[in-house]
Amino acid sequence: MPTYRIAPSILSADFARLGEEVRNVVRDGADIIHFDVMDNHYVPNLTIGPLVCEAIRPHVQVPIDVHLMVKPVDRIIPDFAKAGANIITFHPEASDHVDRSLQLIRDNGCKAGLVFNPATPLSYLDYVMDKIDIILIMSVNPGFGGQSFIPEALKKIAEARQRIDASGREIMLEVDGGIKIDNIAAAAKAGADTFVAGSAIFGKPDYKAVIDAMRTQLATI
Ligand code: DX5
Ligand code: ZN
User: Fold this and answer.
1) Does residue 183 sit in helix, strand or coil?
2) Per-residue pLDDT band at 2 (split at 50, 70, 90)
3) What pTM does this model have?
4) 34 lines ligand 1 (CB under 6 A)
5) Would you say residue 66 has pLDDT above 90?
6) CA distance 79 to 84
7) Which of 29, 38, 93, 111 is 20 to 30 Å from 64 by CA-CA measure?
């Protein structure tokens, strides 16, 4: 069985109690904290920046996975690295120089990855696989939590898995958007190993019950 990781998205957390929220979700089994950065430009919503990353950093030991939904990309990368991010991903359409942005993330000591919107082709990976540590497949259009999973994403996860296997490199394959207890197994069967879930976890009273139920589903594969 592959190593499966659950990455709760704090987008659905209680922002007035964020330190407590991330501590609780890690105590209840989260492997990664997923951190959604939106700029009201690349996506039609505005969320959180490096200051908030820095603020939650002392509260958890697990990796912080910064998902940049911002344009331009490069200027903000060193700020997130300094704020304690471990993984930084961005949307290739938001960078004029994708190879340079990936290298910049790595030069700042973080794992680097590309994010693919539902209609974005995986061909952006063609010449940069050697600089990729993580591929993030969006199963909703970016900008908001609580949207429904787009089933076409399963095909793209499977295609990304083929590319990773062909590369022979260790690359995480993450899926983001509409992940729930009842569809996490399908995403894993398609080849995902890292699962972002916002409203499925932070929207519920018992985080441990949801995370345990997700792991039970993953154990059936
Ligand atoms: C959407 C974000 C997601 C979102 C997931 O743009 O990238 O990380 O928070 O939320 P749910 O799990 O509620 O779809
Ligand atoms: Zn995200």
Assistant:
1) coil
2) confident
3) 0.98
4) yes
5) yes
6) 9
7) 93
